[in-house]
Amino acid sequence: MTFDYSEAFRGSIGLPNTNNVSGSEMRYRDAFNQTLRNELSRDPSVFIMGEDIAGGAGRFEKDGEVSYEAKKGYKPLDAWGGPFAATKGLIQDFGPERIKDTPISEAGVLGAAIGAALTGTRPVVDLMYFDFVTVAFDQLLSNAAKSRYMFGGQTKVPLTMFARSGAGTGHAAQHSESFYSMLVHIPGLKVVVPSDPYSVKGLLAASIRDDDPVFLINDKKLINLSGFVPDDDFVLELGKGRYLRQGSDVTLIGMSYTSEVCRKSAETLEKSGINCEVVDLLSLSPLDEDIILESVSKTNKVVIVDEDTPMCSMASEISSIIADKGFDFLDAPIKKVNSPHTPVPYNRDLEFLFMPSEKRVIEAVKEIVNY
Amino acid sequence: MNKNKISWLFSTMYRIRRFEETMLEQTFKGNAMGVTHSSDGQEAGPTGVCAHLTDKDWIGSTHRGHGHCIAKGLDTKKMMAEIFGKSTGQCKGKGGSMHIADFSKGMLGANAIVGASIPLAVGAALSSKYNGTEKDSVGVAFFGDGATGQGVLHESMNLASIWKLPVIFVCENNHYAEATPVEYAVSIEDIADRASSYSMPGVIADGMDVFNVFEVAGEAIKRAREGKGPTLIELKTFRYHGHFHADDPKKYRTEEEDKKWKNRDCLKIFADKVIKGNMMNQGDLDMIKKAIDSEMLEAVKFAEESPMPNSNELYSDVYVNYEKKRY
Hints:
By secondary structure, chain A is an alpha/beta fold.
C-alpha cells in the first residue's frame, strides 16, 4: 500500500487519510518509543544518551532478579525505561553502548554529544524535563547551534535533543516550563513540537535523520494521547505546519498541546455557529509562515494559543509576522492567548488558571468574531 | 626521537612564535577585525602534545588557539586570512581569531567560551570508542587554568573516567586567567591534583621544555590508545603577552616574574639541548627560522590580497538544508 504522507500532511486537511493505510491506534509515548526503536535499527550511528534512559546502569536482570555482574541469560537492567518510559525496553535490544545512561551532568553530556556529532555519529539526547536545558544552555547555544556558521560551513551537527515541557501535572515552577521562544531565538537550531502520535512519529524520525541540531519538545499533557499511527516508515518535513480543521470565521493557531486546545475549542464553537480554522504549527523553527498567512488571508481574524509566558513568545513573533506581512488581511486585532507572565504555580486550581484553556480561547474568539 | 621529529618540534614552536608576533603586528596595524590573543611563550605545550597526533586525532582548543592550530598542522596562510576576516580564511572569514577550525586536520575549533570545548574532545573520544577506533583516534582537550573553575571541566573529566574514554585533558597553566592570578582563583597548588577526584593519572610537565612535554604527553596518549582511559596533564607555562592584544600585563605582573619565565624560553631551552646533545647545530636552526620568517611574510601577503567575503555569506551556513527564508 503506498500513501503519500507528505501530501496528506500539507493538504487541505492535515490529518492522514487512514482508509486503506495499515496502522493502529496508539499512545503518543508508544509512537515515540517505536520511532526511537526504528531509527536505532535503521542507522547504526544513532545512539541515545540521558539520565536514567534505562536506569540501573551496569546491572543485569532476569525475571525480576537483579545481578551486579553479567551472567548467562541476564539482560542489562531496564529499571526505569527512561523518563516517562520513552526508552523502555531499548537497552535490552540495543545494549548499553547505544542506550547510554549518564550521570546528572547536562552540560557535560550535551557537550559530549555535540563532540560526537561533529565527529561522525548521530547522538540523541534525552534531557528529561525541558527546564533542564538551561543547565546545558551554553553548549546548546555556543557549540551545537553555532559550529556550522562560525567554522564557515566546514561541519554539520546531526544532533537530536528532546525533553518534556508544560504545566498541568503538578510538577511546579522548575519542571513545567514551555519557553519555546528561548530556543527558537537561536539561529542554527531547529525546534519541533509534535502534537499527536502521528506527528511525533514523523517529526522524531525526521529530526534524527536531519543534519542540523534539532530540539523536539514534548508537552507532558500529550504523552497518553491516543491516535492513529501508520505502520509504514515516514517523515514529516521540518518547517511545515498543517491544518487540523478548515473554517472560515477565525483562525486558531496552536503548537504542541495548545493545538489540541484549539481543536477542542473549535468543536465547541461550532455548536454556536462559529466556524474556526485550526493551524497546528508542528515546527517552530523553521516556522511555516505560509500556512499562517494563507489561513489568515481566508478568515481575516486570528487567535494564537501558546502556553509560553507572553513576553517575546512565539505568539508575539507570529503576531508580528501577521502584522507585517498580512496586515491587509486583518479585520480584527490579533489575539494572543498565553500563560500569564509568572512562574508556573503548584496549586492545581492556580495551575489550571495559568494554562491557556478552552474557555480562554473561546472568550478570545468571541471578542473578535463580530468585529 | 628521530632527527625529523626533533626538527619538527623546533619548526612548530618557531612557527607559532613568529605567527603570534606577526599577527599581533597586524592587529596593531588594524588588519585584524577584532581582538586577538597571543600564545607566545606557551609554544612547547601544543607542540609537544600534538607531536604524537595524526589528522585522525581530535583536539579542542581555546580563545588562545593559534598555537594549537599550528601544532595540528593548519595552514598559516588560511589562519592569517581568517584573522583578517577574508573569504580565503580557514572559516571563510566568519569565525575569526577565536574560532579557527579545520575538521580535515582533526581540529574541532578554537572556542571562545572558557571551558566549552572540553566536552567536545570527550565527545570525539566517545565517537572513537563507539566506532572501535580509539587506537587511531583520541581526543585532546586544551584549556587554561581559568577553565578549571568551570563546572563543565569537572563533568567532562567524570564522564571520560566512568566511560574510560581515550581523552587527554591538557591544562596550560599560564598562571593568569585574564588578569586574575591562579593562586587567587584555584584552591589547590597543582591543578594536576584535580585528577585524583576522577580516578585518572594527573601529571605535571614543564611547559617551557618541549622534550618534557613530549615525554609526558606520549605516555598519556599511549594509555588512551591502549584503552586505559583519560589522563590530566598540567603544563606549567607563561604567556609573554597580555590577555589580549591591547592588554598591558605590567598592570598585574611583576618584571621579575616575566624575566624568570623568559629566561626559560622554550626556544632557548630547545637550542641549548639540541646543540649540546649534537642533535642539531645552529646552522640547522637558522635555516628553519629563515624559511618560517618568509612563510609569515607570505601569509600576510596572502591575507592582504585576498578578497572580502561576498555579502551572501552573511546568510549561508546557518543550517545544512534550510536557507530559504531570510528573516
